[in-house]
């Protein structure tokens, strides 16, 4: 931890799981300049958003971006559609309503995340993507040159992580040229 700015060392509850090539990160007086904050609306990600706001508040940052990646497969598996299945009009309406509800839910928690930063007078923008969460987060971080990714963790271990997978673990393993801060919330 000695290579991290004092403002980061003061943030208890944060676990830095992997630092990739930190010497090549653009730094202004020991402070990271582009922060990508990941949220899925869960309690764990809300806690990560709060910690990211503390990091940004104590930093000389250029950009804070909040990202949510919606995994469309979750919607499809909730419906009785299979290959060659032609849904009825009623089923299509149900699907459209599910998408509409999901979109409203996303707007709510993204607005709440944005508000955390606004309360600290930190300007942030939102990215809303569809796809595989970990892969999309890593891709956006790389494509847009983020210096730090802040992501929450449910704290799965062992067999549960193996069976269910872990977005935060995949981001830690796949992210290049940026620091990944995994925030655990008990």
How large is the share of residues in beta strands?
15-25%
**So how many helices?**
7
Uncertain stretches: 1-28
Q: What do we call the CATH homologous superfamily?
A: HUPs
The H-and-E topology, N to C, reads as HEEEEHEHHEHEHHE
**How large, in whole angstroms, is the Cα Rg?**
18 Å
Averaged pLDDT = 78
Distance between the termini: 22 Å
Give a short account of the largest sheet.
6 strands, mixed
Question: Helix share of residues?
Answer: 40-55%
CATH class: Alpha Beta
Global structural class:
alpha/beta
Overall form = globular
| Strands in their spatial order, largest beta sheet | 1-8-7-4-5-6
The name of the CATH architecture is: 3-Layer(aba) Sandwich
When the domains are counted, the total is 1
The CATH topology: Rossmann fold
Q: Please report the total strand number as a whole number.
A: 8
Verbal overview:
- The chain is an alpha/beta fold.
- The protein has a single domain (6-70, 101-184), classed as HUPs (Rossmann fold, 3-Layer(aba) Sandwich).
- The chain is 43% helix and 22% strand.
- The protein has seven helices and eight strands; from the N terminus they run αββββαβααβαβααβ.
- A six-stranded mixed β-sheet has the order 1-8-7-4-5-6, with helices on both faces. It has a two-stranded antiparallel ribbon with strand order 2-3.
- Helix 2 (43-57) links the parallel strand 4 (34-38) and strand 5.
- Helix 5 runs parallel beside helix 7 (167-174).
- It is globular, with a radius of gyration of 18 Å.
- Residues 1-28 have low confidence and may be disordered.
